[in-house]
């Protein structure tokens, strides 16, 4: 699977989070309802200081590699101004392998399966998905950033 290595500046993300893991499909059972709650109860509209219209799924606080528990945050990038309403986490500045899909249904799973089977030298500090909304509000394109060693 194709990707490019890019340098990303640090980002601040505010949203709602959970602790999960990839074992036995637990992450899928946890993450989809988290997004449903985020949008279904209007939480995205409560976040102040948004810097763009994108949504971010942040993987952080890894307890090891991708087979161990980690934290996931569904949210938006903010400028850090104002009092946060929800959990705030940082995306570290650094090098990331960037993957892109225009097929939100299948593409995201294909990217993650490829990442798990690639010899990337991952940092396991922060990885994130950036959802670029289309005209109907649904993701038109998804960028997946995997933290890699310098």
TrEMBL record:
Q: Which Pfam families match?
A: Cass2
Source taxon at top rank: Bacteria
InterPro entries named in the record: AraC_E-bd, Cass2, Reg_factor_effector_dom_sf, YobU-like_regulator
AraC effector-binding domain mapped to chain residues: 1-149
Q: What is this protein called?
A: Effector binding domain-containing protein
């Amino acid at each position: 699977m194709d990707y490019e290595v890019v340098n990303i500046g640090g980002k601040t993300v505010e949203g709602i989070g959970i602790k999960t893991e990839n074992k036995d499909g637990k992450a899928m059972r946890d993450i989809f309802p988290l997004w449903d709650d985020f949008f279904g109860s209007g939480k995205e509209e409560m976040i102040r200081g948004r810097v763009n219209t994108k949504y971010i799924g942040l993987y952080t606080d890894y307890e090891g590699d991708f087979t161990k528990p980690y934290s996931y945050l569904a949210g938006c990038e903010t400028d850090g101004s104002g009092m946060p309403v929800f959990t705030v986490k940082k995306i570290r500045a650094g090098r990331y392998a960037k993957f892109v899909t225009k097929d939100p249904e299948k593409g995201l799973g294909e990217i993650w399966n490829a990442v798990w089977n690639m010899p990337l030298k991952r940092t396991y500090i922060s990885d994130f998905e950036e959802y670029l909304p289309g005209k109907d509000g649904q993701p038109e394109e998804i960028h997946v950033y995997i933290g890699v060693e310098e």
